[in-house]
Design brief:
With about 450 residues, this protein is α/β, with parallel strands linked by helices. The protein contains 13 helices and 21 strands. A hairpin with a 6-residue loop joins β1 and β2.
């Protein structure tokens, strides 16, 4: 480890208690975007955290919660952007917390509080990293730093995409570090290169104006049966989605992605133990379970039709609904898929089916050989002392798309404080203090080297 890295580590260790205190103060402020509890007060607190570090701070209003942009210039013209959020998930059920969710408590070498990992501990670890680098450079930085901290991530970031489009000059950068990085159960840093897109919709079938007695089932149309036929038209038993041209733009994994899949552990045994799976989709086994993330999906979230109470009620349902999400792979466009879905329904004789768009996110992926990715992997292995696990694509979605393309196709990486058992979104959410210091050490190294990358 070179002297600069050793000095970074020493600074962070010497100030660790201060940073845990700062994280605790931030976690003590409720900021539940689903209900609005404490959100604006938390935005003010985050603004103050940047101001006392002499960042140039803009708290910018949106149609929802304000977004904070904080900037510092650097010696290099290169700028690194950090994305974080100050809102948290609702804390319920409260009775399952060992200590109250907004009364942070340190025990078993971990900080317990709502937001400890997602995303307040993450934010403070990044501030700590920037503090350490500035301390070694007499207050300057090797590269420019821009923080974007929003307050609606936990409700789907409904305003972030428009915000980025409206403020591209303010947010101009050459690469970004996204929120929520992790280490796995063995302590290896996980590097995620991409996320899938998603299109969520609701289909509604109405065959009559009210439910009818099932004695009339020989002549009156059943909305549930019609919905079943609609669903059968969308996906076959082979799991192929039947919407014409659905797969036209879907990119397969690259040759380098295939190499990364080969280096990943076999997840089969763990998945069987966790979910009690007898047979996986399409008969998948072994590492093919990971590779299948490049297969777009059509998933039924839930179906509602007719009587579902106790006993029986002999009715013909007049209305049936289903909520569906399509997970999309790189280069697929939710707008395009929505249009193709509507055209498919019409062509199959289902023009009467009401199609409602519930939400969408676009896929985003960075190549494994991007210099920022390579820097993240190399410095992560130095900090954690273990080879990094590199995931070409994960099954979920995030608003990373809102930044990557509008800002010129910037690469995005995800080092952070998370760990496999941190109970993110659940009662007793907690951040391991060891993970906090390692994340800060990792990010400090990235900032230190990014100006000359």
């Amino acid at each position: 480890m070179n002297p600069t890295a050793a000095e970074l580590d020493l600074f962070l260790l010497e100030h660790l208690d201060d940073y845990i205190t700062e994280t605790s103060e931030l976690c003590a402020q409720p900021s539940v975007s689903a209900t609005g509890e404490g959100v604006l007060a938390c935005a003010d607190l985050v603004e103050t955290m940047f101001e006392r570090r002499q960042f140039a701070v803009n708290k910018i209003p949106t149609d929802g919660n304000p977004i904070i942009v904080a900037r510092l210039g650097g010696v290099s013209p290169r700028t690194l952007l950090f994305y974080n959020h100050y809102d948290v998930q609702p804390p319920e059920p409260l009775e399952l917390w060992t200590t109250p969710p907004f009364q942070p408590a340190v025990r078993n070498s971990a900080l317990y509080a709502r937001g400890a990992i997602d995303d307040k501990g993450e934010l403070v670890a990044r501030l700590a990293a920037v503090d350490a680098v500035r301390a070694l450079h007499d207050g300057s930085l090797p590269c420019g730093i821009t923080f974007v901290v929003e307050g609606e991530e936990e409700i789907g970031s409904p305003h972030i995409a428009q915000f980025v489009r409206d403020h591209k000059e303010l947010l101009a950068c050459h690469g970004a570090i996204w929120e929520q990085g992790y280490v796995d159960a063995s302590g290896r840093p996980i590097n995620t290169l991409g996320v899938r897109g998603v299109l969520s919709v609701q289909l509604t079938v109405r065959t009559m104006t009210l439910d009818a007695h099932s004695g009339g089932a020989h002549m009156l149309p059943n909305a549930a049966w019609r919905l079943v036929r609609v669903l059968d038209s969308l996906k076959g038993p082979d799991e192929r989605i039947r919407i014409p041209s659905f797969y036209d733009d879907a990119l397969p994994p690259s040759a380098l992605d295939e190499q990364l899949f080969e280096a990943m552990p076999n997840p089969e045994a763990e998945l069987r133990a966790e979910y009690g799976v007898r047979e996986f989709v399409g008969g998948l086994r072994g590492k093919d379970l990971e590779r299948a993330v490049f297969s777009p999906t059509c998933n039924i979230q839930g179906i509602t039709a007719g009587y579902q109470g106790g006993g029986m009620k002999t009715v013909i349902p007049h209305e049936a609904t289903v909520k569906i999400d399509f997970r999309l792979v790189p280069e697929q466009d939710p707008d395009d898929i929505f249009a193709k879905l509507r055209a498919h329904l019409d062509a199959q004789g289902f023009a009467d089916v009401e199609l409602t768009r519930l939400g969408a996110m676009w896929p985003a992926k960075v190549p494994a050989d991007d210099p920022l990715v390579e820097l993240c992997i190399r410095t992560g292995e130095e900090v954690y002392g273990k080879p990094a696990l590199v995931e070409p694509l994960v099954g979920g979605s995030s608003p990373v798309y809102a930044f990557a393309k509008p800002l010129g196709g910037i690469p995005v990486i995800r080092p952070g404080v998370g760990h496999y058992s941190g109970r993110t979104h659940a009662p007793d959410e907690h951040m391991l203090i060891e993970n906090f210091i390692n994340a800060a050490r990792h990010i400090a190294r990235i900032v230190e080297e990014y100006g000359s990358l």
